Batch of 2 targets.
Target 1
Amino acid sequence: MPTYDYECRGCEHRFEAFQSIKDGALRKCPECKKLRLRRLIGTGGGFLFKGSGFYETDYRSSSYKDAAKKDTESSSSGDSDSKKSDSSKSTDSSSTDSSSPKKSPDAPKTEK
């Protein structure tokens, strides 16, 4: 059952009441007995899923998130370095003479 907050406009008494969702709002103040109550709008209650059907990793701490963010930033900066080295390799291979075929040392020997 939800908890509702009430305030009396006559005596400014504030209290909470446990009521069913189907129940109407209270109207009579328990302190001054006047019909001056109003239901206050609350923020509601927070809840956290627990049990075997939910992952604890869904609720990671901020320190874990910060470390993961640093890790992804360092890996993305490492990618740009590898791209630079790849581009330098491609320029090196283009400067070699491509007209003569190269044999790999593992290639089988053919006899003539």
Target 2
Amino acid sequence: MDGWWSGTWLRPTAIALALASIALVIVNGALTLRIQNAQAVLTQRQQFINQAVQVSRVAQLLVQTIAKTALATKDDALTALLERHGVRLQPGAPAEGAPPEAPK
């Protein structure tokens, strides 16, 4: 029974398949580590973006409050400071985000 079924090809084929599977396991592990690192970086960037949005909202509220105070106290120095930084004060105008007044 020489030839195809004799088993002479079986051992080298099994060794080659075992080595290939080990190589694939190593590649899979390396790719998994790389993906985890990329996900960590992406998570940090997303957290930074979320925090920037929150800080922006706080800054906007702070400027609105300062502007209302400047109008209420008629503080010319504070009004000039706000206008120097691009904040235009309009007496009697509703604050941004305030609900519209009901008709009388």
